[in-house]
Amino acid sequence: MKRLLLLAALASTASAENRCVDCHEPQQKLLADSAHLVFGCADCHNGREEAEDMDAAHSPAADFVGRPAPSDLARMCASCHEKETKAFELSPHAAATRRGDPGGATCISCHTLAATPTAHAIADCGDEGAPSGRFQVAATCARCHSDAEAMKRSGLRIDQFAQYRASAHGYNVLEEKEGDAATCADCHSPHEAPSARDPRSETHPRNQAHLCGACHGDVKLMTEHGKDPGVVAKWQASAHARNLDLGAPSCAGCHGAHYSHVPEPAAIRESCGRCHEGPARELAAGPHGPAVHTDPATLASAPVHCAHCHDAHGGAKPLPPYGATACAACHAADSHEIAEGNAMSDLSAALHTDLVALHQKLEEARRRGHDLPSCRETLSALDARTHDFASLVHGVSPAKCAAEREAVGKESKALMGRLSEFTPGERRLWWVPVMWVFVFLGVGLLFLKARKLKSPQGR
Fold first, then answer.
1. Is this structure's pTM higher than 0.90?
2. Angle between the 82-89 and 70-78 helix axes, to the nearest 10 degrees?
3. Taking Cα atoms as reference points, which of 285, 300, 301, 341 lies closest to residue 317?
4. CA 443 to chain centre
């Protein structure tokens, strides 16, 4: 209360000395209801607000700024908000303003009420109804990001707000008014707001695990919401994380960026199949294609999908033998399905052993100074065949897997023969002992000859 009284007193003092009000009373009323109620006109516009003469008040000698250009607003705000302004100057919003885009965002675009988009009505960020407030910021961003014309100029989609509103994050913020659910400003730096293609951006694929992990790795928060707090750590140890620079998906790749959601069981095949086309195709064509799995805990039924055998975030391959690990989750221990799983596991292990041996042999040849581009190409093609084999495993076809294993095995054997020509094994040097025999005989004869020459009879 004391703070409010002090601000009111300051505002009263400022208005008493301010002759600008004589002409600009509407602006003064807006200012009095804003976060800047203690500021005088000259604090932003310069000039001489106490002057009685308009020309003196608007004197260029006093650096008067009348109606500032959009590109001038950040400079004016920087006198108090230096940190935020420096970040904003690096943003796509500022870049659009500098190039004259009429839709380029400025400070007042996000910090004033939509009904009064003017710098005189800057809202206090701490107010619940402020445009930058937690429950209002999505609608504030949507002023531009749902504008078809503005987004056309920027080359961006116009449905981000609609997707966010339909997501779990949006529902929890906009409908449930949960204070810990993600808003636009939680994922996008509100002032710098770099593009997701910018490596500095929190939403860049390389940075998404850290960004999402701020909430989804929080044990207390996730426990309150009944979610697993270990999903981010699992992903960070996965093949997807290791191959991120090769195009593997990060968080948004599977869950979506603005429409962040857990894929429905029926959609998981399609989601994974966007990258893993072969396994998804074989899965749909095999015995698991029409199969339905019922969760014993929840009794919920869903088509058999990828996450039944692969951890959704860890993405690890089932450990051999497949029958005892993956298949046993649904099939009886003495069933033919377990036997088929183990058979495919053995074929996969044999294939892996062959290829490891070939890689070692090729490396040995390289160390011996042999550059063998044709052999490298052949081995690369054999490596690719492992993906074909993995696809057949998803189709649960032991016969096809055996045929592919045999074909790859023949090619592997042929390549091993070629590489062996450049990496001969250690041969027994049979002539070395014979050589030493002759050396000792020669030394012995020379010794005897020398003694004979030294003896009296030899003189």
1. no
2. 150
3. 341
4. 76
